[in-house]
């Protein structure tokens, strides 16, 4: 299976345990963003007919998968985790080639999938409900989780294996079957995860993958009446449409969307530590993280010093192909993303922000064929400016001066998003106030805005989502329905709430 695909470098949809050519007959090249002339293979550009096939396969496989005891399902997930451990280096290298993130981060991406597989493998022996007394004699009450059916999963390109795992793995442990529509730019990493699940013994039809665009495949999946749950991660613009369409059919639906995350740095912050956090938060994954620190809100006492240190350190970051272990910043995902980032730099300049570093494409001999953008720092940014309010999704950080804690929290909260926030301070009172008052799903103390762990809930408030969470135990609520059981062994009609 793998060898024939490698020879031709042509990949197909994975439906009912078989590689199926798309009904459209169309394929799209998968390119290396560090070197766009390097083609890594071609992947299907599928249509609604392919989605139909995949949903039918998932629907047919559902009864047997649901009937498989959860601990048995979980053992397959555990084996898939072991397979990923063994293939981690190969999969990480393939991910760097198709997505661009540096190898160290690509290994972390695969590791996150491993962590999720091992975490949910344990959950197979729990999936705890509640047991509680009845208000009536000789009667007991309890709750159990039931799977929903077919889960339609739509993922972005910035965490090519981790995000598919955040969705597929809890969906499977709960007893659902799935159809995954991965991002157009990173099909191969999603396929690697599915291959590991297949090799671990997950039966045909339980996990299906359809490659293609959001407009054709993604939309067809959202609208398909046999898909009972939709889990989407991506932009707020698309997520809003997905949420509306799913709501019209009363589907379970979680949407995990954009961010405009702030780091607050107070005068008493440990500066060296804070700078490390700023660099990692703002420029890790070239700023293409939903949790990227794209705003630094800095108290006036350390403002100039922090800015100088930041510019100096950021100017020394090594940019290039992420397969080179000495490289710290890889390329952006594609030309369109690069143009979007460059467009925001122009907006920032026109708005009157002070460009202190970067702001342009890296135009060296070895980067010209890729989508490299220099780490960019804007100073004296005002909260009203678009670069302080809109998600840029690139290596661009806006530095805003503030007077103190209250001012900083007000600025941090004054955006449409609410994913992640952080504060650097040694003042216990300030830390607790910030943790209480920041409008965000995730708050870090003395750490940057990135660094989620799989056993904790992940997601945000306001424009970042629709109130659900991925990861942790919270994600189980997306992929299951509660069933409440009343067991009456009194041998008489007992009526709740009726006075006797
Ligand atoms: P995107 O919204 O363009 O695409 C995401 C996915 O949706 C892709 O698979 C795409 O093909 C699909 N899609 C596009 N149009 C669709 C439609 N009409 N119907 C159904 N599916 C459709 O986002 P992107 O550019 O791939 O990813 C970047 C965005 O993702 C950023 O905004 C980032 O903040 C967000 N993100 C959020 C989280 C989170 O957990 N909150 C995590 C990572 C990325």
Description:
With 500 residues, the protein is of the alpha/beta class. It has 2 domains: 272 residues, Aldehyde Dehydrogenase, Chain A, domain 1 (3-Layer(aba) Sandwich), CATH 3.40.605; 185 residues, Aldehyde Dehydrogenase, Chain A, domain 2. It is built from 13 helices and 21 strands. Strand 1 and strand 2 form a beta hairpin. The longest helix is centred in the N-terminal third of the chain and has 30 residues. The relative contact order is 0.13. The chain binds nicotinamide-adenine-dinucleotide. Nicotinamide-adenine-dinucleotide binds next to helix 7 and helix 8.
Characteristic key phrases:
alpha/beta, 13 helices, 21 strands, single chain, about 20% strand, about 500 residues, disordered N terminus, Aldehyde Dehydrogenase, Chain A, domain 1, binds nicotinamide-adenine-dinucleotide, globular
- The CATH superfamily of the largest domain appears as Aldehyde Dehydrogenase, Chain A, domain 1
Overall pLDDT confidence? 97
CATH class of the largest domain: Alpha Beta
Q: Please state the CA-atom Rg, rounded to the nearest Å.
A: 24 Å
Bound molecules: nicotinamide-adenine-dinucleotide
- Please state the second-level CATH architecture of the largest domain: 3-Layer(aba) Sandwich
Percent helix among the residues? 25-40%
């Amino acid at each position: 299976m793998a060898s024939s695909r490698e020879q031709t470098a042509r990949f197909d949809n994975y439906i009912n345990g078989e590689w199926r050519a798309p009904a459209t007959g169309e394929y799209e090249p998968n390119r290396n963003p560090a070197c766009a002339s390097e083609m890594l293979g071609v992947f299907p550009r599928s249509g609604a007919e392919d989605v139909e096939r995949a949903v039918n396969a998932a629907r047919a496989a559902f009864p047997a998968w649901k009937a498989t005891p959860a601990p048995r399902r979980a053992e397959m997930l555990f084996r898939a985790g072991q397979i990923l451990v063994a293939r981690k280096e190969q999969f990480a290298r393939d991910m760097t080639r198709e997505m661009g993130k540096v190898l160290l981060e690509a290994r972390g991406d695969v590791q996150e999938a491993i962590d999720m597989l091992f975490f949910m493998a344990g959950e197979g022996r729990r999936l705890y409900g509640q047991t509680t007394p009845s208000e009536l004699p000789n009667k007991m009450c309890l709750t159990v989780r039931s799977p929903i059916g077919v889960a339609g999963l739509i993922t972005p390109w910035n965490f090519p294996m981790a995000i598919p795992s955040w969705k597929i793995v809890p969906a499977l442990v709960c007893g659902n079957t799935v159809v995954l529509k991965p991002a157009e730019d990173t099909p191969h990493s999603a396929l690697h995860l599915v291959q590991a699940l297949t090799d671990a013994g997950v039966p045909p039809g339980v996990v299906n993958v359809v490659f293609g665009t959001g407009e054709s495949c993604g939309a067809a999946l959202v609208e398909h009446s046999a898909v009972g749950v939709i889990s989407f991660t991506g932009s707020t613009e698309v997520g809003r449409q997905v949420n509306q369409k799913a709501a019209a059919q009363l589907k379970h639906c979680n949407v995990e969307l954009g961010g405009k995350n702030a780091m607050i740095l107070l005068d008493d912050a440990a500066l060296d530590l804070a700078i490390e956090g700023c660099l990692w938060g703002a420029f890790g994954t070239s700023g293409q993280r939903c949790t990227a620190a794209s705003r630094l809100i800095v108290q006036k006492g350390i403002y100039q010093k922090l800015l100088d240190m930041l510019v100096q350190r950021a100017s020394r970051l090594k940019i290039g192909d992420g397969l080179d272990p000495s490289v710290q910043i890889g390329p952006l995902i594609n030309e369109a993303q690069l143009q979007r980032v460059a467009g925001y730099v122009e907006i920032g300049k026109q708005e009157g922000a002070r460009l202190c570093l970067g702001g342009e494409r890296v135009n060296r001999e070895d980067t010209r064929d890729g989508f490299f953008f220099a780490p960019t720092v804007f100073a004296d940014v005002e909260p009203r400016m678009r670069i302080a309010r809109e998600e840029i999704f690139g290596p661009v950080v806006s530095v805003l001066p503030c007077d103190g804690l209250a001012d900083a929290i007000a600025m941090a909260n004054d955006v449409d998003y609410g994913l992640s926030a952080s504060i650097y301070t040694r003042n216990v009172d300030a830390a607790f106030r910030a943790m209480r008052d920041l409008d965000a799903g995730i708050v870090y103390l003395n750490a940057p805005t990135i660094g989620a762990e799989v056993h904790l809930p992940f997601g945000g408030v306001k424009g970042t989502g629709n109130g659900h969470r991925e990861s942790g135990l919270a994600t189980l609520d997306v992929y299951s329905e509660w069933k409440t059981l009343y067991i009456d062994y009194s041998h008489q009609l007992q009526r709740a709430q009726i006075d006797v």
